[in-house]
Amino acid sequence: MRPQIRQLAGLLVACFLIGSVHAKLNIFACEPEWAALTQELAGGHATVFAATHAGQDPHYVQARPSLIARLRSADLAVCTGAELETGWMPMLQRRARNPKVLAGKPGYFEATQQVTLLEKPAELDRAEGDVHGDGNPHIQVDPRRVLEVAMALSSRLQQLDPGNKPNYEQLLQDFTARWKASIERWQSAAAGLRGKRAVVHHREWIYLLDWLGMQRVGSLEPKPGIPPNMAHLADLKTQQADVIILSPANDKKPSAWLQEQTGTPVVMLPHTVGAVPNSDNLFDLFDEIIRRLSESART
Ligand SMILES: [Zn+2]
Predict the structure, then answer these.
(1) Are residues 95 and 215 in the same domain?
(2) Ligand 1 center to residue 58 CA distance, Å?
(3) I need a surface site. Which of 26, 93, 120, 205 has the fewest CB within 10 A?
């Protein structure tokens, strides 16, 4: 190689190295809540893509080519796990051919691996259609668990992008302080809900009820993922619930029927960021959940 060319090549390598030092992490979040949390914790050091929006049911997502392309270029995938994405994420991982984001690699993060799960089944009969085979995956509606996920996720960001470690530590510290203060505020606003009895549509409110000290006295779905039927709904009439909870994605007819039969108020709660107006970040999401629930529950 002639000296000038060698110099030029050296310059190009240097530019490439500098470029990669400053490159933002490319993050693929399976659900909007984890996209929002990742954005809080990564600030301007990452580009975050949400694979699904609030109007989609994360149990059932189509493995579209656009999602495969996004996963192919990702440095990190942040998902719920506990089989929530079992119908689509493994297929995306196979087709994306990106070894960084395969299960077991640092570039694949599952939120449910970071917390204690409720409703782990002793045995599971898939023939009955249960979509919660690994325990209940809907942990994002308990802010205490969200904080545990945040700490683990920040560590993962620091591991993948060590050059920005102090920045991620600072972002986590800021988030934790604001989040803990908010939890206190939400808990005192919801103190009157303690002991209240709730019927849920899908069992996606278990962690919320657990956090607030409320009781789940029934589900409109006879089993997670199985649509409500008349015989099952009729059984629920005797449950004397204080509130019936559903999310915007659920069929509104079963809860409306039960309300008509029993007079129990129905409340629609956002199950993730963006599911209703004024829920566009994690703080607003819980503000809205607590506001709606407090206004609706029978006192
Ligand atoms: Zn579910």
Answers:
(1) no
(2) 8
(3) 120
Strand positions, DSSP E, 3-157? 25-29, 46-50, 76-79, 108-110
How many Å lie between the centroid of ligand 1 and the Cα of residue 57? 9
- What's the CA-to-centroid distance between 146 and ligand 1, angstroms? 17
Number of domains in the chain: 2
Q: Domain ends where: 185, 200, 232?
A: 185
By residue range, what is the domain housing residue 267?
191-296
Residue 220 CA to ligand 1 centre (angstroms): 13
Q: What is the CATH number of the domain that holds 178?
A: 3.40.50.1980
Nearest by Cα to 241 from 231, 253, 255, 230: 255
126 within a domain of the structure (yes/no):
no
**H or E, element range at 154:** helix 143-160
CB 60 within 8 A of CB 81: no
The residue whose two tokens read 């559903």 is 246
Per-residue pLDDT of the chain (299 residues; tens, 9 = 90+): 555 666 655 555 554 444 445 689 999 999 999 999 999 999 999 999 999 999 999 999 999 999 999 999 999 999 999 999 999 999 999 999 999 999 999 999 999 999 999 998 877 666 566 778 789 999 999 999 999 999 999 999 999 999 999 999 999 999 999 999 999 999 999 999 999 999 999 999 999 999 999 999 999 999 888 999 999 999 999 999 999 999 999 999 999 999 999 999 999 999 999 999 999 999 999 999 999 999 997 65
